[in-house]
Amino acid sequence: MEKAVIGIDIGGTNTAVGYVNFKGEIIADCFLPTQGYQNFNFYIDILSKEIKNIIDKFSDKYEFSGIGIGVPNGNFYTGKVEYAPNLGWEEEVNLAEIFKLKFNAPVFITNDANAAALGEQIFGGAKGMNDFIVITLGTGLGSGFVANGKLIYGNDGFAGELGHIIVKENGRTCGCGRKGCLETYVSATGIKRTVFELLADKNFESEIRNIPFNNLSSKDIYEFALKGDKIALEAFDITAKILAKSLADVIAITSPEAIFLFGGLSNSEEFLLTPLRKYVENYLLKVFQNKVKIVKSELIDKNAAILGAASLIWNEITI
Amino acid sequence: MEKAVIGIDIGGTNTAVGYVNFKGEIIADCFLPTQGYQNFNFYIDILSKEIKNIIDKFSDKYEFSGIGIGVPNGNFYTGKVEYAPNLGWEEEVNLAEIFKLKFNAPVFITNDANAAALGEQIFGGAKGMNDFIVITLGTGLGSGFVANGKLIYGNDGFAGELGHIIVKENGRTCGCGRKGCLETYVSATGIKRTVFELLADKNFESEIRNIPFNNLSSKDIYEFALKGDKIALEAFDITAKILAKSLADVIAITSPEAIFLFGGLSNSEEFLLTPLRKYVENYLLKVFQNKVKIVKSELIDKNAAILGAASLIWNEITI
């Protein structure tokens, strides 16, 4: 019988579940809120019931073969979610163990950016690549590094925190408690902060001057850029330049074949990707010039988070 | 019969050859200049004769099993030395092929920092470690990254150029043609440049004010620091701080178990390693604090370059 695995993407707000076959087709899916339950055990019980329903429904056609979970601060080695403030869980939750006991099957967890990298490798544009990087641009900036065909988890399972390299000493305050981290400049939130810095620094007319900070999304900034708004255009250019410098540095360290960008901002070919490629080439050490592809994730329109989580299992089991 | 491999370390000035058994013992060695021959072929002929002599001398005791070569700009994938300006060779020399034909044995090449990392893994302090970094501090700054137990060569074989991440925009002119590279601040040359910047910026009395740029070595700076020279002490502190920031960034990306420092500057426990550890912890993202060992290479007093080169073969063959 054909095998299929459950991929779970746990975000701060929503949890998405998909039943995924080895071609990366999502046979069935369901969605539920991550929070708002009486307690953590209620959440796990409801989530487990939904998963069981899916597995049972297709038990004549697919052999259930494991559960992969992408979750903020998920640690591949320990199976634990360690100190994930956005989830409101206890400091340490052994999520892999909980599901292993419930489903008597292999369970692997990792963070969302690592899951995205595995998804890209197994189902997306990185098929057949041994050395590549996936950067996820959301509220923050996440990253998954693959070298010699394998995801770099590092010694403690927490490798890939590119969002927290410091790009400006004494720069913007970061959620991590430090200052000047890349994600305070390059992310949906980062570009908004740049817009507001520009509103202060420059005298350009801009419709954005009528919008409060809390009401402006990165999608709005994109739409203002489309209309030729100078502040929005310059904010994209600055974002591309700061990311380019960091990418030139990581290329010097890991020499990837390609860098895949994932998440809302990555959709902007003209305002982000095009200047990004130009600036990266400008910053690069000669030996790396004109070698590294910088492209949108090929999973960008699919349910990448579910596919990525499912890839955790496809990566470990033989079909 | 016990196996042994030839390790060759080719530097801009000298070439060192060693016959190395699987315990990392150097059974025999010899040294010759790298340059000054009629042409490249003469160099190769003389080097080959020396190697043959060693192999023959021990042919009753050791089975010759391959040649590993550490050489600037050596590419593991292609076997070629590509554009190594300091060697004065042609733009592309297929060194692995040349020795394969002469010795009918496995030949692998890589750059000196990667060789040092393999040497550390097989014979030094990184035994049993899957994730670590070796930094070589010489005229420049080289690095070898190991993740999941394997050296990261990257897509083109040139990964590990930590010396060329840009730490200061429009900073010091680098030999690579760009500005602000880490190695212009952190290396034997880098600390000297810092000393001369300090001589200009500060008013401290210092004996170094009597020494011309071209006569000052990093060893001199160390000795002045020992005598309490303020310029020398501050130069070490600045060097440690700049390196610390970069190490905090690479720790966030690769989460190594340890970072090994190799080369003259690394010998200074009090002026370099101690402040380096302190600054790294200050810069680190919380999740990585108090986890990563920063230590001197355990090969520092041995012929690490030969051992590293030999490790290229021990890494590929089974004993």
Can you characterise this structure?
The structure is a homodimer of 319-residue chains. In chain A, 35% of the residues lie in helices and 21% in strands. Chain A is α/β, with parallel strands linked by helices and 319 residues long. Chain A folds into two domains: 132 residues, ATPase, nucleotide binding domain (Nucleotidyltransferase, domain 5, 2-Layer Sandwich), CATH 3.30.420; 169 residues, Nucleotidyltransferase, domain 5 (2-Layer Sandwich). In chain A, the strands form three sheets. In chain A, strands 3-2-1-4-7 form a five-stranded mixed β-sheet, with helices on both faces. Chain A has a five-stranded mixed β-sheet with strand order 10-9-8-11-12, sandwiched between helices. In chain A, strand 8 and strand 9 form a beta hairpin. In chain A, helix 3 crosses helix 8 and helix 6 packs across helix 7. Chain A is globular. The interface between A and B is large, with 45 and 45 residues.
Topology:
Two copies of one chain form a homodimer.
Chain A: E1 2-10, E2 14-21, E3 26-33, H1 40-57, E4 62-70, E5 81-82, E6 92-93, H2 95-103, E7 107-110, H3 112-123, E8 132-137, E9 141-147, E10 150-151, H4 188-201, H5 218-226, H6 230-254, E11 258-262, H7 269-283, E12 293-296, H8 304-314
Parallel strand pairs in A: 1-4, 4-7, 8-11, 11-12
Antiparallel strand pairs in A: 1-2, 2-3, 5-6, 8-9, 9-10
Features:
homodimer; 319 residues; alpha/beta; Nucleotidyltransferase, domain 5; 5-stranded mixed β-sheet; 12 strands; 35% helix; globular
